[in-house]
Amino acid sequence: MSRKTLSRIVPLLAMIAFLTAPSNAHAQTGSAQTGSETRFQLTIASQLLVEAKPGVEKVSTLTNIAYTWKRKGALGTLFLDSIELQGSRDGREIMDLFLSRERVKNNLSGQFDEKTLKDAPPGTKAMMEDSFGNALYTIRADADGRIVEKTKVAREGAKEFIEGGTVAGAFLFHAPFVRGQERWIAPAEVTIGNGGFATGNLTYEKLANENGRMRVKVSGLLTKDRFKPAGSPIEVKNARYEVTGEQTFDEKRQEWIDGELTFDLSFQMEANGIETASSKGIMKLRLKTR
Description:
The structure is a single chain. This protein is mainly β. The protein is built from 3 helices and 14 strands. Strands 1, 2, 3, 4, 5, 6, 7, 8, 9, 10, 11, 12, 13 and 14 form a 14-stranded antiparallel sheet that branches. The longest helix is centred in the first third of the chain and has 14 residues.
């Protein structure tokens, strides 16, 4: 897979796969002395209608992001394990990719290509080695899991994934869990691609404790009035992401272990002051441990 192909993939991952990022991650699972390692799977299924001349297109995607948080006390380290992305436009397959440290594979009919770490060209090899299996971020959190310090430690080969917003998905469901309150608010952001973010607050409300696992209702609205990437004639405007869903917090493990969120989204695009397209749709997100 060529570097040129990767340069097209990463922005698409950021835009279609959405990858929202509440600005928090909870404290450790396991003991503070020995540390712990928890592996997660984030699945994102989207259905979007894009209205642009000459008509309306239906864009569907299915994204799986595997990542790992290693924690010791208040400190956490994030690792990306693999990404799978499938996409179609009006029922026609347009993307079928798998990326990891071991291999990069394009399964699209008529375009099959597979590279291992051993036989990948230099640029692709650097992306594989630096993006997967190496530390990308370190954090320090307070007792409720609010991030008080966040440091990017990723190597150069992971730059496109980080700047494109892909890695932000690994922060998605790991919001604070405030033990002494039934309801709290935490800031959140969702990438709109190319370095732009819609921002706002999500509200968390405790529902029921089932054998030490607390179900929590999540709701909120993230917005961005306008964003124009550097060097691009296209401007995104009126981006809205209405969030509803539930998450489950394991009080024994001190970790969010499960969740389902729905994003009802809409935005418009314009060039030189003229609207060129509008989009609306639904994204359904599911978190589980591996």
